[in-house]
Amino acid sequence: MPITVVGSIAYDTVKTPFGERERMLGGAAVHFALAASFFDDVRVVGPVGDDFGERQLAILRTRGVDVSDVELVAGGKTFFWQGEYGWDLNSRETLDTQLGVFEGFSPKLSENSRSSDVLFLANIQPDLQLDVRGQLPDARFVALDSMNLWIDIARDSLVRAIESVDCVILNDAELRQLTGKPNLVSAAREVLSWAPASSEAHAAGERPRGPSVIVAKQGEYGAALVTREGFFALPAYPLETVIDPTGAGDTFAGGLVGYIAAHPDEALTDELLRRAMAHATVLASFNVEEFGTERIQRLSGEEIAARIQELHAMTQFSGTPLRLRG
Amino acid sequence: MPITVVGSIAYDTVKTPFGERERMLGGAAVHFALAASFFDDVRVVGPVGDDFGERQLAILRTRGVDVSDVELVAGGKTFFWQGEYGWDLNSRETLDTQLGVFEGFSPKLSENSRSSDVLFLANIQPDLQLDVRGQLPDARFVALDSMNLWIDIARDSLVRAIESVDCVILNDAELRQLTGKPNLVSAAREVLSWAPASSEAHAAGERPRGPSVIVAKQGEYGAALVTREGFFALPAYPLETVIDPTGAGDTFAGGLVGYIAAHPDEALTDELLRRAMAHATVLASFNVEEFGTERIQRLSGEEIAARIQELHAMTQFSGTPLRLRG
Question: Which residue of chain B is at minimal alpha-carbon distance from A278?
Answer without folding.
Answer: B317
